Amino acid sequence: MMAFYFSQLVDIFPFFLKGLWMTSKIAFISLVTCTLIGLILGIFRSSNNIILKRLVGVYVAFVRGTPFVVQIFIIFFIFPEWGIQLEAFSAALLAMAIMGSAFICEIIAGGIAAIPKGQWEAAASSGLTPFQQLRLVVIPQAMKIILPPLVGQYVLLIKDTSVVSVIGVMDLTRVGWVTVVRIPEGLMVFSLVGALYFMISYPLILLSNYLEQKMAD
Fold first, then answer.
1. Helix axes 50-64, 13-45, angle to 10 degrees
2. Residues 164-207: pLDDT tens digits?
3. Cα angle 198-201-205, degrees, rounded to a multiple of 5
4. How many other C-beta atoms are found inside a 10 Å radius of the C-beta of residue 207?
5. Nearest Cα to 42, choosing from 31, 53, 33?
6. d(CA 172, CA 180)
7. Three-class SS state of 171
8. Residues 6 or more apart from 152 whose CB is under 8 A from it?
9. Predicted pLDDT of residue 217
10. In whole angstroms, what is the distance from residue 139 CA to residue 133 CA?
11. How far apart are CA 94 and CA 137, in angstroms?
């Protein structure tokens, strides 16, 4: 019986590759979007503007303090009641952007805060504008602190894409659930799903480990 199920799994493997492509597409777009938004929010979070810091702080606290699946449900099921209708793919990207940017914001803000005030003062005394101080002096130094946890967060975001299956996005996890209906051998099916997730996450895990060692030298 196991051999029969395995042969069926081999036959429908292209279906899993489609799910892998969808997961990879969501992950790539989300990582780019989250990084850009998280960078901007992180700069605001570490600024001297109290209003901006508190607004971003409330946003980060709310997003990090609520389950990701609840956030997706609100975007996909509640937003239409307010006149904002999104397709499942678009809703998934928006939810990932909101969730991921909050975590990346804290990483960016923490890296900027770790730079000694003397570096800011030296940059200011050189006649640089606040934006130039960030771009030319602070951010380059902060990257040594930011990069390892940032890449680690990327791995978590890739795994979090599995949650978007609850709104019908045909990602790897959704493909797994659909397949189990046809092949009632859950361990075999989701072992394949797990292996495919591992395939796209492991290079980032290696990169994160490398950066941690590199930055520690």
1. 150
2. 999 989 999 999 999 888 887 788 889 999 999 999 988 888 88
3. 115
4. 16
5. 53
6. 12
7. coil
8. 208
9. 60
10. 8
11. 32
Q: Where are the domains of the chain?
A: 2-216
Which amino acid is present at 79?
F
Asked if 210 contacts 46 with a C-beta cutoff of 8 angstroms, the reply is: no
Type of residue found at 161? T
Q: Are residues 106 and 42 in contact, defined by beta-carbon separation less than 8 angstroms?
A: yes
Report yes or no on whether pTM surpasses 0.85: yes
Half-sphere exposure (Cβ direction) of 127: Cα atoms closer than 13 Å: 0
Assign a CATH topology to domain 2-216.
MetI-like fold (1.10.3720)
Average pLDDT score over residue span 61-67? 94
Question: What does the pLDDT look like over 67-86, one tens digit per residue?
Answer: 999 999 999 999 998 988 99
For 81-118, the pLDDT digits (tens) are: 898 899 999 999 999 999 999 999 999 999 988 888 88
Give the distance from CA 128 to its chain's centroid.
Answer: 33
